[in-house]
Amino acid sequence: MASRTLDELIDMLARLPGLGPRSAKRAALHLLKNRDTVLRRLAITLAKAAEDVCQCSVCGNLDDVDPCHICADPKRDSAQICVVEAVDDLWAVERSGLFRGHYHVLGGTLSAIDGIGPEQLGIDNLISRVEAGVLEVILAMSATVDGQTTGHYLADRLGTTNATVTRLAHGVPVGGELNYLDDGTLGAALKARRPVDRSATDL
Length: 203
Description:
Radius of gyration: 20 Å
CATH architecture of the largest domain: 3-Layer(aba) Sandwich
Number of strands: 7
Order of helices and strands: HHHEEHEHEHHEHEHE
Shape: elongated
CATH topology of the largest domain: Dna Topoisomerase Vi A Subunit, Chain: A, domain 2
Strand content: 5-15%
CATH class of the largest domain: Alpha Beta
Number of domains: 2
């Protein structure tokens, strides 16, 4: 294309999840056709997000304050922690409206191939939080191989604490990821959670 600026815009949009080259071109055209109502406002919002949004030093959530609004909410149940792999999983659980405790975002899963171990996931920080008086830890791992491996490891590490360790139950399909589940399925999984059997081979 003749315009280097337009090419760069399309290239950047194409890097977003779910947008390929064709979708990026359509998005770019839409933005340019709506400069005042969409494009300029989007540019301002993106710049503000780049400056203001940070990672919560307590749970790993994204917010424009630290600690995040969830961690700072006195109405949340501090005796419960829901452990998730990523921030979008936290958002999915929050969307269900059924969990009123706190969270811990691992930022990924254990993966020897990718060189991701307990240190990279901040698991020691999780253990410290639990030892401070948490009564229940809900392992809300995706039903993938890495997710289940991480869940097993966490269950073993949490065995030295006084907390009851539970996991999501019915409704989460094998191979499924939390952020793709509908609200009803995720809600049923939260309600049907049960204690982890540390002698079992599956979570």
